[in-house]
């Protein structure tokens, strides 16, 4: 199915869900000036096309450190290695790029032992892995994941995008109810209060209090996942930028306002800023680099790596 099958109402509904993935149909109906029945019918149609609302934990808010791994593998093994990484509960997304020999993977670790077990033991001993570079995400400017939020016009800082303020905060303590909510919302972010009440063994009012706390404290975000190709965007690309330190914050915060950019973070390594973008075509990508990236101050180099396949997406490592 192509983007022409989606009309203006579908786009508006996606935009509204991006602002609040758990908004009741009655609220969405008032916002869109439609009947509740029409909104529900359109929502179910979009779900049939692959729409997912996914509850995701914020790694930093829960005391986790996020790493971006960049692996070069032999062509015959990259897919198998990507699939193995996707099965790990501590990975949140895995993509294949650059002719199928390079893959990217986001990993959340709580302790140095967890980090070292993967980076110093598991991966170096994996056959057909030619090189591994690990980049600590120092600050995430936009996007809890590298998945594009499928709307035509993306607000600069919707709740789902989890922009990092850069201010250190004490990790939020979780109880059994919180952990169960994370598990259930990772499956379906719009699970009803009765469904969550049954899963947790708590009353609906207690569940609502836990949800309000997790969202207010920035520990839980609702992400909207929809295939960009259905909206006419056929080119996903990883951008690796080397930015002069004096301009790193400015460039990162500027990228966070660009609708094409799903994810941008300051990282350790030779390239100190990485971003994921979604574009309609190679010409669209060229125009973006020429007109929006090029004029930014302090950019010393840029490397582009088109995504060939998303092996794992919006599958958060649960706390």
UniProtKB/TrEMBL annotation:
Gene3D superfamilies cross-referenced by the UniProt entry: 3.30.70.920, Winged helix-like DNA-binding domain superfamily/Winged helix DNA-binding domain (1.10.10.10)
Short name of one Pfam family: HTH_AsnC-type
Ranges for domain HTH asnC-type: 1-65, 174-234
UniProt keywords, alphabetically: DNA-binding, Transcription, Transcription regulation
PROSITE patterns listed in its UniProt record: HTH_ASNC_2
Protein name: Lrp/AsnC family transcriptional regulator
Originating species: Streptomyces decoyicus
Species classification: Bacteria, Bacillati, Actinomycetota, Actinomycetes, Kitasatosporales
